[in-house]
Amino acid sequence: MTETIPSILAPLKHDITEVNRILSGTYTGGTGYMEKIFREVLGEGKRIRAGLVILVARMFKRPLKEFYGLAGAVELLHAASLIHDDVVDGSGIRRGYESTHAKWSVEIAVLAGDFLFAEAVRMIADLRKPQLLGMATGAISAICAGEIEELMGEHAFMSRDEYFRNIEAKTATLFGTAVQMSGLLARAECQQIERLKEFGYAFGIAFQIMDDVLDLVGDERHTGKPVGSDLASGVVTLPVILYLENGGASSYLDAVLNGERTPEHIRHAIDDIRSSCAIRAAIAEARGYTNRAMEALAGLPECRECQILYNLAGCIIDPCN
Amino acid sequence: MTETIPSILAPLKHDITEVNRILSGTYTGGTGYMEKIFREVLGEGKRIRAGLVILVARMFKRPLKEFYGLAGAVELLHAASLIHDDVVDGSGIRRGYESTHAKWSVEIAVLAGDFLFAEAVRMIADLRKPQLLGMATGAISAICAGEIEELMGEHAFMSRDEYFRNIEAKTATLFGTAVQMSGLLARAECQQIERLKEFGYAFGIAFQIMDDVLDLVGDERHTGKPVGSDLASGVVTLPVILYLENGGASSYLDAVLNGERTPEHIRHAIDDIRSSCAIRAAIAEARGYTNRAMEALAGLPECRECQILYNLAGCIIDPCN
Question: Domain holding A158: CATH number?
């Protein structure tokens, strides 16, 4: 049987329930408007980031209570960045639902992200370790600065380097910071914290590459968004870059990249990419990063949790996930 | 000679230079894009919030260095909220310049606000007093939740109560929190911190009422925005509410409130409001709040700084300011 992320994280079910309770506590009560906005945003999701935080805590055999707070804060930061990123990318669909700005408005999305960000910071501040806030805010500043550079730059087309800088800012930095913070809170040794960060970072890169691959080859019922939604909103991802690097010539893709983003052009462009070796090449790149993530686990306490991290890294490069 | 905010804050000139140095440190270096975006946003402004923070520090005779950090953080929070609020309100002009979203894009404005917010939190975290972060994040959560409630509510027209809730979220909460945080950092007694918070809050309400009055009667060269810009973007402020409460009947204002926001309608509507007693009544409301602010200063150390706070409160209700 193929392992999936939910099946691998199943042993953490009780922990994730605790984290979910913290998350719903941020928006329940009051007049109910907040609940309307946040229930979908915070109610769904595989809680991979929270899972990583908890696994590190268990690895170092620490009492879990304060790690639930950290895991909740990391999920809030993730949700805040999703809400704002959807505004930045103009994405209308998120996890099969309308994104916040599409469902309510850009105004609500801006405020909703700010609110979650403030709540996340409050929860991290409650852990009484100023270094954690330094890590979290350093990550957010870097993420925003990276995205600003990206937007301000004048590119007709995204290069391979730009793609990696982009997914680093979009995904890998927060994964890396999540496990780094958990390592610090667990009082791991400096070198171990570095390894954890390296694991999270490489895991995050692989995770995002596979997310981008699934946007082209995945099942809408599974991914929660229509096939080709990246191309449809003008976002160029690794498979497209590899397709072009390897001499792929598709008049449909050219048209899409020149702004002619009709459903038909997109469908044919995807067919052309799929029949090339670009998808396989992109998965091979992702595998390179999961290997780096697995290698980073050496030097950490050998235990069940370490094995789970290993399995998670292995599982994300399975395109059936 | 009429005192102005800059003339009253003149004794703090050296301190404000230090704060400005911290602010420009957040965006200099790198490829220069950040500087392009932030130079105008952070380069201008009277630094009233920073001034209040410094005055409290001086009142309690504390070494100023860490207060420069707090003052910088408060100005960053203010700038972040301006940038995001301009997106929320759709305002195109800020301090005589195009607002960030108008000049660059909504995307850049979202990221720029997030970046400044993260930098502000980092600076507060560096002060190593978790309570400060609790205050700051509590304020931001309350501000965002208040604005979300406002946007989600279904009103054809803003009531007096709604107006005050709105300016509390928009302005008074951050003023109150700024002096409260400074009092805590200055190790003032609990009761003194409460009085400082009350001062900042009442000062902020009066400040915003006068800002709204000046939008109708001010000089564009002075306010940095065209006369009537609130009405032009559909924002109803206290003078308008008082005009209608007191039986004012202006067909032009009715048309503007029903969405007919032509320059001519707005000009005539403003004339009608100006020739009523609504402006004077709004200033009287502001005066009530400056009185509350001045009363809150009793019980604080009698000193030159306390007198400056007193003068500031007195000066903001002068419509020539």
Answer: 1.10.600.10
